Structures are given as C-alpha cells and as structure tokens.
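Q: What would this complex look like in 3D?
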Amino acid sequence: MHAAAAIAAILDTVRKIPAGRVSSYGEVAARAGLKGRARMVGRVLGMAPQDHPVPWYRVLKADGRIAFPLGSDAYKEQVRRLRKEGVTVSKTGRVDLAAHGWSREQSLDELLWG
DNA sequence: AGCGTGACAAGGT
DNA sequence: GACCTTGCCACGC
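A: Here is my prediction, written as structure tokens for the whole assembly.
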C-alpha cells in the first residue's frame, strides 16, 4: 500500500472512533490494515491542524495515557476535548480503557448494570 | 548508506 | 509510578 492510501486508511479509521470512546495508535494502525505502524499514525495526525475534522484527540498511547508531555498546550487541548464528550481523564492524563476503550470487552459494570 | 529522532508498543526492573 | 531495552516504522540530514 502506498503512502497516500495509508494516510487515507488511517484518517478513515480515526473518523470511525465513536464519540466518548478512545483508541490507541497501535489499534488504529491495525484496523487500518497497517499492523506494526503505530508511529505512522502519530505522524499522520501530527500533519493535520488541531481544528481538522478528524477526532485526533480520541487516539492515546496503548496504556491509555495522552502522548503529549504533561501540561503542554496540545496536552491540555486534548484533555479539554475528551472531557467535553464525557471521557474521564485523570490528573496525570490517563483514560481508563476498560471504561472508554473503543475495542474492549464489555466491562463488568456494563454486564451487570447495562 | 548510516544515524538520530519521534503524537509508538511490549516487556522488564 | 518511573525508567530502561528492544523492536518497530518513517523522515531528514
């Protein structure tokens, strides 16, 4: 797959992350048919301006932490946007993937209480 | 071609 | 939690 197609596949995949859910660079890459290319996802999102339509802020590191340095402008903007759509972000920039992850097993709470 | 760097990941200390 | 190492890919010099 050439570069333009890869970029399109990545942006497509990011667009499919539902509001209120989050994914990871690695997961986006895999779903875009680019397994092992998590770093390319970061690169592609980095090219787009922050007001680009794709919901770049729903993409986190594999452990649920925000990729930007704590306290940086980009970091703060990402926290704002996530919280605005109901995602809980800890003071250290961590999101509970069991609660908000895109691809996840249903949480115990969900199974018990729906 | 070689090497450093980065919005990464996984595993270990 | 904070690091560190290894593996990985894409760029720029």
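A: To summarize the key features: The domain at 3-113 of chain A is CATH 1.10.10.10 (Arc Repressor Mutant, subunit A). The two ends of chain A are 41 Å apart (CA to CA).
Q: Very helpful, thank you.
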